[in-house]
């Protein structure tokens, strides 16, 4: 065999041949054309008919190589191996892309279906909760967020689905992800927590037990206003149930951060933060004092005249919840100079703003004569009377009760209500309103106005209120509470009923024995001594004169 001459060109070709064989070996492919099927999917017989063209005078022939050169066959095998690898990678990419699209479409469809109540039962029966749970930890952020949104919408529908979220151990996943994920997921997770907490104190307690409150408080420090809003909203729904849950929110350090939130420029965040402060304050004086100590009153008072009606609702509600607990808290609210600014809210176009404003005035007036006198001096009584005349239904109720609280403190304050023409307005409420609890409040307020002196009682009687009170008392459709308010069981009210002529008027009614009307008259008469009833009965004076005539003096 002739010795091969090694040149740079032959060295390069030899290295290339070795490299090709290395590629074929790594690919695990057989390069011999007489076995199996080719890399391109053609049978070996076809490949034998289409062998690579070899040019005479190649380096192997020139150097006397006696073996069949496999160089070009190996090159073809290498190219085929590379093509197979590329197609495998492409196929894998397509499969994963389709899987991701399917997951995305699933969670989006479920989230969309959950917006319509008629679909909820079907989704629940299909076990959608267990299908959504693993998607909360999906590698794709969009799928995580949409699955959380779907869970929130389902849990928001009823307490059974909310309880399914708790029993399915979904809350720990949400709490973990709430601290780690992006702002979109945080908002969706906070929505789920809020949807679960809204239904009952037990479900809200489950959220507290899984450590969600601390994580939500951390979210109050987030840079994104939407995350702060979602976290504050969830905390409010937890706190509104009872004092224990509110205390858990306070202990987590939420109050100072909520006070900072009401100072943010975003109106939506201000609304939710004020609402949460209101929910925290309503349960006990201690919780309300915590809110006050954080400096909330000054910031809330500044927003009373904000043009946004929904914000004013929450601000007035928060101030009223703080004021109701004690004289000291009410005085602190008054010291924030809310009068006479708050009186302008009684003329607001939004009914809830008017109602919450009247509620705030009522909660301040009920504590002491001094606070009531301050309201009278600011023109509050006249403003409330106008407010009662311009609205109907439950919106009237806090204003009606406010007049009663003011009048109850002293005869001077009661006379201020009379001078401001409060009695005729209360009489209108007594006649117009359909709800018994509103009529009962009006009757109670009229009793507080007229109970002080005969002059006060006369002012009530002149407004033709007594006849209406009597008809309401004898009405079989009237509630027991209304009847009690009409003739309450206390000495001052019984005295007022006598001095105003009501008892005498009842004795003049001619009722058939055994009739329901006679039973009502007897019930009223049983509230008084027998001699008083006889004294005001028709003809009693004549009976006394006859006894005088027939009396035989003892000498």
TrEMBL record:
Query: Transmembrane region positions?
Result: none
Record-linked InterPro entries: ARM-like (IPR011989), ARM-type_fold (IPR016024), Armadillo (IPR000225)
Q: Which GO terms describe its molecular function?
A: microtubule binding
Any GO CC annotation of this UniProt entry: extracellular region
Query: Which portions of the sequence form the region Disordered?
Result: 35-59
One Pfam family assigned to this protein is Arm
Query: Where does this protein have compositionally biased stretches of type Basic and acidic residues?
Result: 44-59
One annotated GO biological process: filopodium assembly
PANTHER family per UniProt: SPERM-ASSOCIATED ANTIGEN 6, SPERM-ASSOCIATED ANTIGEN 6 ARMADILLO REPEAT-CONTAINING
Protein name, please? Sperm associated antigen 6
Query: From which organism does this entry originate?
Result: Leptobrachium leishanense
């Amino acid at each position: 065999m002739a010795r091969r001459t090694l040149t740079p060109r032959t060295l390069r070709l030899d290295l290339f041949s070795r490299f090709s064989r290395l590629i074929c070996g790594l690919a695990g492919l057989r390069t011999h054309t007489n076995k199996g099927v080719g890399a391109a999917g053609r049978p070996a017989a076809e490949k034998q008919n289409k062998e690579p063209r070899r040019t005479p005078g190649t380096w192997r022939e020139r150097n006397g190589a006696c073996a069949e050169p496999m160089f070009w066959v190996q090159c073809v095998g290498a190219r085929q191996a590379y093509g197979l690898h590329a197609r495998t990678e492409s196929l894998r990419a397509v499969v994963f892309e389709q899987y991701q699209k399917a997951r995305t479409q699933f969670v989006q469809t479920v989230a969309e279906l959950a917006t319509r109540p008629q679909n909820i039962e079907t989704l629940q029966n299909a076990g959608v909760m267990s299908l959504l749970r693993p998607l909360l930890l999906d590698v794709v952020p969009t799928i995580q967020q949409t699955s959380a949104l779907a869970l929130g919408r389902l849990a928001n529908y009823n307490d059974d689905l909310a309880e399914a979220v708790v029993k399915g151990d979904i809350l720990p996943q949400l709490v973990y992800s709430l601290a780690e994920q992006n702002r979109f997921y945080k908002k969706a997770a906070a929505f789920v927590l809020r949807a679960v907490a809204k239904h009952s104190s037990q479900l809200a307690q489950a959220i507290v037990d899984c450590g969600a409150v601390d994580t939500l408080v951390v979210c109050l420090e987030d840079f994104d206003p939407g995350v702060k809003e979602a976290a504050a909203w969830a905390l409010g729904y937890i706190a509104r149930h009872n004092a224990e849950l509110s205390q858990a929110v306070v202990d987590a350090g939420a109050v100072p951060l909520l006070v900072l939130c009401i100072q943010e420029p975003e109106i939506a965040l201000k609304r939710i933060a004020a609402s949460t402060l209101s929910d925290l304050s309503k349960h006990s004086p201690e919780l309300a004092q915590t809110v006050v100590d954080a400096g909330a009153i000054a910031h809330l008072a500044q927003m009373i005249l904000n043009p946004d009606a929904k914000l004013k609702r929450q601000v007035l509600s928060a101030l009223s919840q703080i004021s109701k607990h004690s004289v000291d808290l009410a005085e602190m609210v008054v010291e924030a100079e809310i009068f006479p600014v708050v009186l302008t809210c009684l003329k607001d176009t939004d009914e809830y703003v008017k109602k919450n404003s009247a509620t705030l005035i009522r909660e301040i007036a009920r504590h002491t004569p001094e606070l009531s006198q301050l309201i009278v001096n600011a023109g509050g009584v006249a403003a409330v009377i106008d407010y009662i005349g311009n609205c109907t239904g439950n919106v009237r109720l806090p204003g009606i009760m406010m007049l009663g609280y003011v009048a109850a403190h002293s005869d001077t304050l009661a006379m201020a209500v009379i001078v401001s023409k409060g009695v005729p307005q209360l009489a209108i409420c007594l006649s117009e309103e359909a709800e018994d609890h509103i009529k009962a409040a009006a009757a109670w307020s009229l009793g507080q106005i007229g109970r002080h002196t005969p002059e006060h009682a006369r002012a009530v009687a002149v407004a033709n209120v007594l006849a209406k009170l009597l008809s309401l008392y004898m009405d079989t459709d009237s509630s027991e509470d209304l009847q009690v308010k009409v003739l309450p069981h206390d000495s001052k009210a019984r005295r007022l009923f006598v001095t105003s002529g009501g008892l005498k008027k009842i004795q003049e009614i001619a009722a058939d024995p055994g009739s329901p009307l006679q039973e009502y008259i007897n019930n009223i008469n049983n509230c008084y001594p027998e001699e008083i009833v006889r004294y005001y009965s028709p003809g009693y004076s004549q009976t006394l004169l006859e006894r005088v005539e027939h009396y035989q003096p003892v000498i």
